[in-house]
Specification:
It is a single chain. The protein is mainly alpha-helical. It has one domain. It has four helices and no strands.
Length: 112
């Protein structure tokens, strides 16, 4: 008896699939498209979050190096890649030439 019910159910489902295959195909395509859009949205969100975190790290490092430069520390210029100490001035800004405060002063200095 169970086998007869199972066979009838299979035939009914097969008949429905044969009769309505276009609708089934459209629904399957729509579900696939929605799943792809959802996955793309997740990927874009993750990339945006990663980009924001990277920008925050860069801004934090720039602020730190700016404070170091204002305090006279050479790490404010070189960051984590300090050059070799050839003159004994490494770690301070004593060995660096200061730029003139204005463009006009810089031009005047270059003409001398």
């Amino acid at each position: 008896m169970k086998q007869l019910v199972a066979a009838i159910a299979v035939l009914v489902v097969l008949g429905l699939v044969i009769k309505h295959w276009v609708i089934i195909l459209i629904v399957a395509a729509a579900i696939t498209a929605m799943a792809l859009v959802w996955l793309l949205g997740i990927r874009l969100r993750d990339r945006r979050r990663s980009h924001i975190e990277q920008q925050q790290q860069i801004a934090t490092r720039a602020d730190t190096e700016h404070r170091q430069y204002l305090a006279g520390d050479a790490r404010g210029i070189y960051g984590t890649h300090m050059p070799a100490d050839l003159d004994g001035h490494l770690g301070t800004l004593d060995g660096l030439r200061r730029l003139p405060p204005t463009l006009k002063a810089w031009r005047d200095e270059r003409r001398r």
